[in-house]
Design brief:
The complex is a heterodimer of chains A (about 525) and B (about 100). Chain A has helices spanning about 5-25, 30-35, 40-55, 55-70, 75-100, 105-110, 115-145, 150-200, 205-215, 225-245, 250, 260-300, 305-355, 365-385, 395-415, 425-440, 445-450, 460-475, 480-500, 510-515. Chain A is mainly alpha-helical and about 525 residues long. Chain A has a single domain (about 5-480), classed as Sodium/glucose cotransporter (Up-down Bundle), CATH 1.20.1730.10. The longest helix of chain A is centred in the middle third of the chain and has 50 residues, at about 305-355. The radius of gyration of chain A is 23 Å and the shape is globular. Chain B has helices spanning about 15-40, 40-45, 60-90, and strands spanning about 55, 60. The chains are: A mainly alpha (about 525), B mainly alpha (about 100).
C-alpha cells in the first residue's frame, strides 16, 4: 500500500469513526440501536437504502460483469428499480405502520404466537448470517488484494470496524456511514464516467459502438447459450426482484423513518439514485472492456470484480485507484453493519425478548441484549469467515436472496394481504422455502460443478411458487371455524386497516389486546 | 419517535376499510403493471432474439428496454406518491372522502 492509498484509507476510516462517536451519544435505547429511533427523514433514509443496495457487489460486480459478458451483466442491475418500486407499493407502508424493530414484528401483529415469531426470526438469522459471511469473505479477499494484506488480517480489520460501528453507533451510525458512502460512490462513478468519456470524444454511446465493433453483436445484446442457462438467468432475475422484498437488512430500513409518508419518500429517493448510478455503469463496463481489456480483467480476477479498480488505474492513475479502493472498503463496511443490525434484532428482540422472556424485558435490558447480540453476530461472522477462506462463497449470497424470496416474502405478503392466511401456513411456507432453497443450491452446479443433478443454480423461479402453493394449501386446510374464524377475520381486518392506512379501527372485543 | 401521530378527528371503521380497499387495489394494479412491463425483458432476452437488434451506435433494443425500467419505476413511484398523499388527506378528514 503506498502513501496515497494509506492516507485516503485512514481518512475515510477516521470519518466513519467520527460519525460513530457522534451517533453513540444518541444510541441510548433498543429503538435507537435497531431503527435509529425512527429519526431519519425520508430522503436521508432513501440515500441510505441506495447505499445498502449499491454495495461492492453492484459497483464492482456489475461493472465487471458487463466488461466480461456484455448486456447479460446488466441483468444484475435492472431488477433493482423494479424491486424497489414493488417494495414501495407492497411492503414499505404496511411495514412502517405495523413493524417496530424486525420483520417478525409485522407477522406478530396478526399471529402473536411464539412459533410464527420464532420461525421468521430464524429465517432472518439464516439469511443475514449467510449474507454476512459471503460479504465478509468476499470483502476480505478484495481488501487483501487491493491493499496487499494477509486474508486473516483483512477479516480482523473488517470485523473490528463493523463491530465498533454497530455496537457503539447502532443504526444511526450505520445509516450515516451509508449516506456518506453513497455520496462518495456517486463521486467515484461520475469521475470514472467522465474520464472514460474523455477517451471516447465525450460520446456516451462511444463505448457501446466500440463494444459492437470489437466484440460483436452478442456483446451488446442478450446472450443465450442453452435453455437451462436461460432458465437460470430468468430464475436469477425473478429471484433478485422477489428477494429484495424479503431481505431483512434492507426492509428494516423502512422502520427508521417516523411514518408511512417518509417510507414512500425513502423508496422514491432510492429509485432516483439507482437511476443516476446504474445509467453510468454500462459506460464503465464497456469502457473497461475496451480500455483495460477483457483478458487483462480476467487474468486479475475471473469474475471481473477488480475491473473498476483496473479501469480507475488506467484512466486516472494511482490516485484514482487509491480513492476507488478506499471507497470500496467503506462500502463493504457499511453493508456489513446493516446486516449485523438485522441479525442482532432477530436474536435479541425476537428470540430473546419476545420468545424466551415473553416480552417482559426492561428497556435497559433490551438495549443490553441488542449489544450482546451485536458482538455475538460479529464474532460468529468473523469465525466462519476464517474457516471459509478457501470455500466458494458465491452460493451463500444466492442462498440468502433465495430464502428471502421463497420463505420471507410469501409469509409477509400473505399475512398482510390475504384474509384466509393462518399461523400454520406461515410456518409451513417458511420451512418449505428454507429447506427447498438449501436443497436446490446444494444440488446445483454452483456447488456440485458441471456434473450436478440440476441444470440451474437459482432456485427462486422453482421454489417461490412451491412455497406460495404450500402456504395457500395449508391455510385452506387449517382454516379456523366458528368463533375462532370470526376472531381471526376481525384481527385481519384491524391489522389490514392499520397496515394500509396507519389508523386503528375502533373495536369492542379483545382484538386490540392481541394486536399489541 | 417511531409511532405516527393520531389524527384530530377519528375516522369511522367503514371509512378506514374503504380507504384500505382503495389503497390495496391501487397498489396491486400498479404492481401488476410494473411486473407486466418488466418480465418480458428477461423472458424475451433469454429465449428469443427480439431484443437483439441494434438501434443506433451499438445500443440494442435490449439496452433501451432495460433503461426504460428505470423510467417506469420513477413514473409509477411518482404517480403513487401523489395518489397516496391524496388518500392520506382522506384519512385526516374522512368527511371529505
Amino acid at each position: 500500500m503506498n502513501l496515497v492509498s494509506a492516507s485516503l484509507f485512514a481518512a475515510l476510516v477516521a470519518v466513519t469513526l467520527m460519525i460513530t462517536a457522534w451517533a453513540s451519544k444518541r444510541n441510548k435505547s433498543a429503538a435507537d440501536h435497531y431503527v435509529a429511533g425512527g429519526s431519519l427523514t425520508g430522503r436521508q433514509n432513501g440515500v441510505a437504502i441506495a447505499g445498502d443496495f449499491i454495495s461492492a457487489a453492484s459497483f464492482l460486480g456489475v461493472t465487471g460483469a458487463i466488461a466480461l459478458t456484455g448486456f447479460n451483466g446488466f441483468y444484475l442491475a435492472v431488477f433493482v428499480p423494479v424491486a424497489f418500486v414493488l417494495a414501495m407499493l407492497l411492503i414499505a407502508e404496511p411495514l412502517r405502520n405495523l413493524g417496530r424493530f424486525t420483520l417478525a414484528d409485522v407477522l406478530a401483529t396478526r399471529f402473536p404466537g411464539k412459533d410464527v415469531r420464532s420461525m421468521m426470526a430464524i429465517s432472518t438469522v439464516v439469511i443475514s448470517v449467510v449474507y454476512l459471511v459471503s460479504q465478509l469473505v468476499g470483502a476480505a479477499l478484495l481488501v487483501s488484494l487491493l491493499f496487499d494484506l494477509d486474508y486473516a488480517v483483512a477479516v480482523l480489520i473488517i470485523g473490528t470496524l463493523t463491530t465498533a460501528y454497530t455496537l457503539v453507533g447502532g443504526m444511526l451510525a450505520t445509516s450515516w456511514i451509508q449516506i456518506i458512502k453513497t455520496g462518495l460512490l456517486m463521486v467515484c462513478a461520475v469521475v470514472l464516467f467522465v474520464l472514460v468519456l474523455v477517451r471516447f470524444d465525450f460520446n456516451p454511446f462511444g463505448p457501446f459502438s466500440t463494444a459492437l465493433a470489437e466484440f460483436g453483436q452478442s456483446f451488446v445484446a442478450p446472450q443465450r447459450t442453452s435453455g437451462a442457462a436461460s432458465f437460470d438467468q430468468l430464475s436469477q432475475t425473478v429471484g433478485l426482484v422477489l428477494g429484495v422484498l424479503g431481505l431483512p437488512h434492507v426492509m428494516i430500513r423502512f422502520l427508521t423513518v417516523p411514518d408511512a409518508k417518509q417510507a414512500r419518500t425513502s423508496a422514491y429517493t432510492a429509485i432516483w439514485i439507482f437511476f443516476a448510478f446504474y445509467l453510468l455503469v454500462p459506460v464503465l463496463g464497456y469502457g473497461a472492456a475496451k480500455l483495460v481489456g477483457v483478458e487483462v480483467i480476467k487474468s486479475e480476477n475471473r469474475g471481473g470484480n477488480l475491473a473498476v479498480a483496473q479501469l480507475a488505474e488506467t484512466v486516472g492513475g494511482g490516485v484514482l485507484l487509491a480513492f476507488v479502493a478506499a471507497v470500496a472498503f467503506v462500502t463493504i463496511l457499511a453493508a456489513l453493519s446493516g446486516l449485523v443490525i438485522a441479525t442482532s434484532g432477530a436474536i435479541a428482540h425476537d428470540l430473546y425478548g419476545q420468545v424466551i422472556r415473553n416480552g417482559s424485558v426492561s428497556a435497559k435490558a433490551q438495549h443490553r441484549a441488542a449489544r450482546v447480540a451485536t458482538v455475538a453476530t460479529c464474532v460468529i461472522g468473523v469465525a466462519i469467515a476464517f474457516a471459509a477462506q478457501k470455500q466458494n462463497v458465491a452460493f451463500l449470497a444466492s442462498l440468502g436472496m433465495s430464502i428471502a424470496a421463497c420463505a420471507n416474502l410469501p409469509a409477509l405478503l400473505l399475512t398482510m394481504y390475504w384474509k384466509r392466511m393462518t399461523a400454520r401456513a406461515v410456518i409451513s411456507g417458511i420451512v418449505v422455502g428454507l429447506v427447498l432453497s438449501v436443497t436446490v443450491i446444494l444440488l446445483s452446479p454452483v456447488v456440485q460443478g458441471p456434473d450436478s443433478i440440476l441444470g440451474f443454480s437459482n432456485p427462486a423461479l422453482a421454489v417461490a411458487p412451491l412455497s406460495l402453493a404450500v402456504s395457500v394449501l395449508v391455510a385452506l386446510v387449517s382454516a379456523p371455524s366458528g368463533e375462532a374464524k370470526a376472531r381471526a377475520d376481525r384481527l385481519f381486518s384491524v391489522m389490514r386497516t392499520r397496515a394500509l392506512t396507519g389508523q386503528t379501527e375502533t373495536t369492542n372485543d379483545d382484538t386490540m389486546v392481541a394486536m399489541r | 419517535m417511531v409511532t405516527s401521530s393520531p389524527p384530530e378527528q377519528v375516522p369511522q371503521n367503514s371509512d378506514l376499510q374503504a380507504l384500505a380497499d382503495t389503497r390495496a387495489a391501487l397498489t396491486f394494479r400498479l404492481s401488476a403493471l410494473v411486473l407486466a412491463l418488466f418480465l418480458p425483458l428477461p423472458i424475451l432476452g433469454g429465449f428469443t432474439s427480439l431484443l437483439d437488434g441494434v438501434v443506433f451506435s451499438g445500443v440494442t433494443v435490449a439496452w433501451l428496454y432495460a433503461v426504460a425500467q428505470f423510467v417506469v419505476a420513477i413514473v409509477v413511484a411518482r404517480y403513487y406518491m401523489a395518489r397516496a398523499a391524496e388518500l392520506d388527506s382522506r384519512t385526516a378528514s374522512p368527511a371529505k372522502g
